[in-house]
Amino acid sequence: MPDSFAPFLVFAAAICGVMAVVWAFRLRTRGVRALPMLLAFLVFGVALLWLREDANQTAMVGFGVALFVLLVMDAMLRATDTKEEE
Predict the structure, then answer these.
(1) What pLDDT is stored for residue 35 in this prediction?
(2) How far apart are CA 69 and CA 62, in angstroms?
(3) What percent of the chain shows pLDDT beyond 90?
(4) What is each CA distance from 9 to 21, 49, 72, 77, 82, in whole angstroms?
(5) Does 64 have pLDDT greater than 90?
(6) Is residue 71 pLDDT above 70, yes or no?
(7) Is a pLDDT exceeding 60 seen at residue 86?
(8) Which long-range contacts link 4-12 to residues 24+ away (Cβ below 8 Å)?
(9) What is the mean pLDDT of residues 41-66?
(10) pLDDT at 1
(11) DSSP state of 1
(12) Is the dihedral of CA 8, 11, 17, 21 positive or negative?
């Protein structure tokens, strides 16, 4: 990765860290249902930092698969939330 992208990757990872803290506070109100998004922000932030360090392709694919699974879990939990409200 070119060095010119490094500040942007660090900034994006910092935003992921802030959002992970926000979702950690949401654990009080949403309970375990906030956990997939909390973990998704952490995984994405770590993936961005590893990308800055020129991580190998296998690691990046692993991060991508983990992120996909966490986001699908969150979507499924949100779908059950809307069914319960109706």
Answers:
(1) 95
(2) 11
(3) 66
(4) 18, 7, 24, 29, 35
(5) yes
(6) yes
(7) no
(8) 5/52, 6/52, 9/48, 9/49, 9/51, 9/52, 10/48, 10/49, 10/52, 12/45, 12/48
(9) 92
(10) 61
(11) -
(12) negative
CA atoms within 13 A on the CB side of 73: 15
- Cβ pair 67, 47 in contact under 8 A: yes
**Distance in Å from the first CA to the final CA of the chain:** 48
pTM of the model: 0.87
Q: Which residue's structure tokens are 């009080």? A: 28
Give the phi and the psi of residue 41 in degrees, each rounded to 5. -65, -40
Residue 37 has pLDDT above 70, yes or no: yes
Instruction: Name the DSSP letter for residue 53.
Output: T
